[in-house]
Amino acid sequence: MAQLKGAAQLRKYLADPDKIVVCPGVHDGLTARMALNVGFDALYMTGAGTAASRLGQPDLGLTTVDDMATNAGMIAGLDRNVPVIADADTGFGGPLMVARTTEKYILQGVAAFHIEDQVTTKRCGHLRGKELVDVNTYCARIRAAAAARKEMGSDIMIIARTDSLQSLGYEEAVRRLKAAVEAGADVAFLEGMTTKEDMANVVKDMAPTPCFLNMVSGGVTPLVNADEAKRMGYKIVIWPLAGMTAVYLGMRDFCRELKSTGEIKERYTEDGKIDGGVGDCFELCGLSKCGEFDQMVGGTSFAKGA
Ligand SMILES: C[C@](O)(C(=O)O)[C@H](CC(=O)O)C(=O)O
């Protein structure tokens, strides 16, 4: 099958010794467009944000593979030059299901995805009480993903995530990540780290496998900026709640304002233009480009402007 560009681009970034890929978390078309507009190298499709925005539910393994894959595919399709790294939770079932999940993510044009070792009734990696599958079940998930990738002739990257630090400790978590790399994973993701010591050590212990860092606002892992993550040796850092928290804060304020005053006052830019109005939102989503395309192919929808 024809290779989509995302995975190849992400592989190039990872091969660059000077680069760390910083990804804002996005969960829908608008948050993805906002991030693309700012010019990030790659985006992260958050499972927590997908559950919250699509289902209005917490991150408890309630999304189906189709909720996640179609969301990831829509986001990946907005700009094929920008790789999308997507959450794939536990792979959504046994090895056969993980293979199907991998196939779906490949067909949706996802560049990389992570699979973890929690039970299918999983929860956010920063909550207490996570339960795990055994290491063989975990490795079968990773092998299933790698086999499906091979079968499809794809270069999608597989990120092995382990949630075992919380209950089994650092040594076992690293053993699991090493077993996952042996089973075909390209990148290691130690979830729920609580100390900078573990954050620095895992990069050294997993070398030469590139490591992935998860910066969750209000989570258990100490937050570090991109420079510090790079100095520690990380190759990818995600801020999964960038979009979700922005929507949470922004929508909360707008709703409070409307409820208490009966209106939402315009916001203005420094040069006096309305900021974030309907025109800005449509333009962000490609209104002008739609008009240009329509005209180019001889359509008439925009003959009278828009
Ligand atoms: C990275 C993550 O898998 C996500 O869904 O974005 C979550 C983030 C969160 O729920 O805070 C996780 O860390 O489990």
UniProtKB/TrEMBL annotation:
Record SUPFAM superfamilies: Phosphoenolpyruvate/pyruvate domain (SSF51621)
Instruction: Report the GO molecular function annotations.
Output: kinase activity; methylisocitrate lyase activity
- Keyword Membrane included in the entry's annotation: no
Its domain of life reads: Eukaryota
In terms of Pfam families, this protein maps to: PEP_mutase
Supply the InterPro entries for this chain: ICL/PEPM, Isocitrate_lyase_ph_CS, Pyrv/PenolPyrv_kinase-like_dom, Pyrv_kinase-like_dom_sf
- Reaction(s) catalysed by this chain's protein: (2S,3R)-3-hydroxybutane-1,2,3-tricarboxylate = pyruvate + succinate
Instruction: Tell me the keywords, alphabetical order.
Output: Kinase, Pyruvate, Transferase
Family per similarity comment: Belongs to the isocitrate lyase/PEP mutase superfamily.
Q: Can you say what this protein is called?
A: Pyruvate/Phosphoenolpyruvate kinase-like domain-containing protein
Give the organism, scientific name.
Pseudomassariella vexata
